[in-house]
Amino acid sequence: MLKKSFFIIILLTSFVLISQTANASYPVEKNKLIINSIVANITVSLVDGMQIAKIVFSSKADRMGNITLSPVEPRMENLEYRAGSKILKISRVTFQAAFGLMKGSITVSGSVTDKLGKNTMPFSRQIATWPSE
């Protein structure tokens, strides 16, 4: 009887935790400085019950490019965006949807040049997590 009660408590606890993640407020909006003046504006929304992340990369007033990630397409590689002479190269950007006890996250790695298109600086950052606590 003790094993059965313990199992039921675990199931109920898991259900509550999954429900809390599933009921997080959407859209989730984050702005993250990646390196120097490169900013990622992230919006995570629910579309037909699936978490979708839209990321816009910009440098000061110049929009450099945007991508959309989801559980169906959780990773993109080898992207290049330009704003004037500045070059943003994304080696890899990955998306992990929030589920149960696991928070959602987006990480990005790559490099960026200065405004003259020289002096390459590498970066690797987690740019978003959700839900917030």
How would you explain this protein's 3D organization?
With about 130 residues, the protein is an alpha+beta fold. It has one domain. It contains 1 helix and 8 strands. It has one helix at about 1-20; strands spanning about 30-35, 40-45, 50-60, 60-70, 75-85, 85-95, 105-110, 120-130. The strands form 2 sheets. The chain has a 4-stranded antiparallel beta sheet with strand order 1-2-3-4, with no helix packed on it. Strands 5-6-7-8 form a 4-stranded antiparallel beta sheet, with no helix packed on it. Strand 5 (about 75-85) and strand 6 (about 85-95) form a beta hairpin. The longest helix has 21 residues, at about 1-20. It is elongated. It starts with a helix and ends with a strand.
Task: Give me a quick take on this structure.
With about 130 residues, this protein is an alpha+beta fold. It has one domain. It contains one helix and eight strands; from the N terminus they run H-E-E-E-E-E-E-E-E.
Q: Approximately how much beta-strand content do the residues carry?
A: over 45%
Largest sheet: 4 strands, antiparallel
- The shape, in one word, is elongated
Domain module tally:
1
What count of helical segments does DSSP give?
1
The tally of beta strands, per DSSP, is: 8
- Spell out the helices and strands N to C: HEEEEEEEE
Query: Kindly state the mean pLDDT as a whole number?
Result: 85
For the termini, the CA-CA separation is 36 Å
Task: Output the structural class.
Answer: alpha+beta
Estimated helix fraction: 10-25%
Stretches where pLDDT is under 50 for at least 5 consecutive residues are 5-21
Tell me the Rg in angstroms. 19 Å
Widest beta sheet: strand line-up? 1-2-3-4
